[in-house]
Automatic annotation (TrEMBL):
This is Quinol dehydrogenase periplasmic component. The chain crosses the membrane at residues 12-35. It comes from the Bacteria. It holds the Pfam family Fer4_7. GO terms for molecular function: 4 iron, 4 sulfur cluster binding; metal ion binding. Keywords: 4Fe-4S, Electron transport, Iron, Iron-sulfur, Membrane, Metal-binding, Repeat, Transmembrane, Transmembrane helix, Transport. Signal peptide: none annotated. It comes from Helicobacter cetorum (strain ATCC BAA-429 / MIT 00-7128). InterPro entries: 4Fe4S_Fe-S-bd, 4Fe4S_Fe_S_CS, MauM_NapG, RnfB_subfamily. The gene is napG. Residues 49-78, 177-208 form the 4Fe-4S ferredoxin-type domain.
Amino acid sequence: MQKEPKNSSRREFLSTFLKGASLCASVSFVGAFFLKSKEGYFLRPPGAEDEKRFLSACVRCGLCVKACPYDTLKLASLLDLANNGTPYFEARNIPCYLCSDLPCIRACPTDALLKSHLEPNKGIRSVQMGIAIVDSLSCVAFWGIQCDVCYRACPLIDEALVLEKKHNERTNRHALLLPVVKNDKCVGCGLCERACITKEPAIRVLPREFVLGEVGNHYVKGWDIKDQERVKKAQGAILPKNEQKAIDYLNEGL
């Protein structure tokens, strides 16, 4: 009986080995992807703001990452939730320290990071990276333990993050000093999240679209002149016939 050549056995061994290695790599890739994306969100650099606009303008050059003096920004890889090659940061690891000269925006060659924030009347208070939210169940200040670490860490202290006094119903003696985020002032730097003393941060920065609602056109601020102008313009619009019939029906008998 003729023996099989040794070269054939070696080829089979190498083929099996490579298939196994490829399978392991694939499993590792998928596992790492789900591990990386478990939080389901990420934060963009100052000036990115609208995600769709940002992605259309960003050329994945990495210049903003190089310009950051704190190594806050990272370029996303295939294993990250953010689009591959785009800049993002994780506030719990390294937050944005809100450099007064905003070097990341200055380094951007395409205005993916809006240059309008460099204007004298804007600056760090105008950027919109996210909004901090407080988990009252895990924040020890809500337990009655005195803690104002996040408040002290906020670069816009008493503007974006304030402490509000509340009666402690449990002890009937001491006041609670509770951290409260002002959504219209918070820029989403993440310094509060980084400073939080709990194992998992009781205060987190999320993308603005995760936090903010939308009122729509059904409600009007009677005290707001701009809102009143909006209503006047809407009243002058011609409604489609089907909408006009619906309004007439609702107004019957009035």
